[in-house]
Write a structure and sequence with these properties.
Strand order of the largest sheet: 11-9-1-16
Largest sheet: 4 strands, mixed
Mean pLDDT: 85
Structural class: alpha+beta
Number of strands: 16
Oligomer: single chain
Strand content: 15-25%
Low-confidence stretches: 11-24
């Protein structure tokens, strides 16, 4: 067993050395891919969130996901984190007396956890069978269970820890938010934004959502303002087309028209930072908060996506067959080196 272990370690070390030597001079990371011009996404405003979790329940309903229990009575759906069956969750930051909302000291705050729909997603880059894809128009990161082989590379690659494996699935599946893309054909959009009572979660084009986020940051804390609810799609499109579907529902630019039901409240005190504008090359889900993003569970990420380098290395290794030949060469070298010198003499004695 020790001999085998040493052999495998030697092969891996030798393969790594040969591969590094062959690839290092040639590899140059590609540019981080930007979000598509018409990318769709969400704006989550933690200062407006009241922690009602209507978004969690709506997400479960439209995706037909079962309840997950974390209490002994098992009366309520109480997931503690996102999973293969919970694509969206509201988490809570707590400190000291929790007397003040959106305060880091003696305060509390909420944060939405779901897929960020990265402009240059690592899960798509890592997937060897294209089960994870990024729509070239909407930018939605989708998942195709029919192609998935259950390798879970996407799980390991995501810096936000979002794709989750359904371990009880007989075929092996991944569960994650896909921005309710299966509802677009009927004019519906992300269920979490549809049901949010305060507009804390807002759906729309990422470019419009970014402009809305910066409008809020510029507000004076405490002043009365009106915040849009639902989506920004029909109201901000200059090429407005109004139609009526077969059920008599009024549609504007292909999306169900909703009455102006803005939520009126005092503006919160925002950090001067739109999370997702630049992190990891830019994401289509943007976030605002009054509490530091690290405190509410969002990772510190560089402006370049890891996929820009890792994908280049993968394509260099496997596209030019460098890795297979390097490993094969290393195995041959190690095997030859480990041949015992007295094998020839033993053969002569036997003859």
């Amino acid at each position: 067993m020790d001999t085998r272990r040493k052999f495998l370690k030697g092969v891996l070390a030798g393969g790594a050395a040969v591969t590094t030597a062959a690839v290092a001079p040639a590899v140059c990371a590609r540019e981080t891919r930007a979000r598509p011009a018409e990318a769709l996404g969400l704006l989550y405003d933690a200062t407006l969130c009241v922690g009602c979790k209507a978004c969690v329940a709506a997400c479960k309903e439209v995706n037909e996901n079962p309840a997950e229990f974390s209490t002994a009575d098992k009366l309520w759906d109480t997931p503690l984190d996102t999973s293969g069956y919970t694509f969206n969750l509201i988490k809570m930051y707590r400190n000291g007396t929790m007397a003040t909302k959106d305060a880091e000291v003696n305060g509390y705050a909420f944060m939405k956890t779901s897929c960020m729909h990265c402009g240059d997603p690592s899960c798509v880059s890592a997937c060897p069978v294209s089960a994870m894809t990024k729509d070239p128009v909407t930018g939605v990161v989708g998942y195709n269970a029919d192609k998935c082989i259950g390798c879970r590379y996407c799980v390991a690659a995501c810096p936000f820890g979002i794709p989750k494996y359904q371990y009880d699935s007989p075929t092996g599946r991944i569960g994650k938010c896909e921005l309710c893309r299966h509802r677009y054909k009927d004019g519906h959009y992300s269920a979490c934004a549809e049901v949010c009572p305060t507009g804390a979660t807002l759906f729309g084009k990422t470019s419009d959502l970014l402009a809305e986020a910066k409008r809020r940051i510029a507000m004076k804390p405490g002043e009365l303002n009106r915040f849009p609810r639902g989506h920004l799609l029909s109201a901000q499109d200059s090429k407005t087309q109004v139609t009526v579907d077969a059920k008599g529902v009024k549609m504007r630019n292909g999306w169900r028209e909703e009455p102006d039901q803005r939520y009126e409240t005092q503006a919160g005190k925002y950090l001067p930072h739109v999370y997702g504008e630049k992190e990891y090359g830019g994401t289509q889900v943007l976030k605002l908060s009054g509490v530091g993003f690290r405190q509410v569970g969002m990772p510190d990420l560089p402006p370049d996506a890891a996929a820009a380098l890792s994908e280049t290395i993968q394509h260099t290794l496997y596209g030019n067959l460098i890795m297979p030949f390097a490993v094969l060469g290393a195995m041959s070298f190690i095997a030859k080196r480990n041949v015992k010198p007295d094998d020839d003499s033993n053969d002569k004695q036997e003859s």
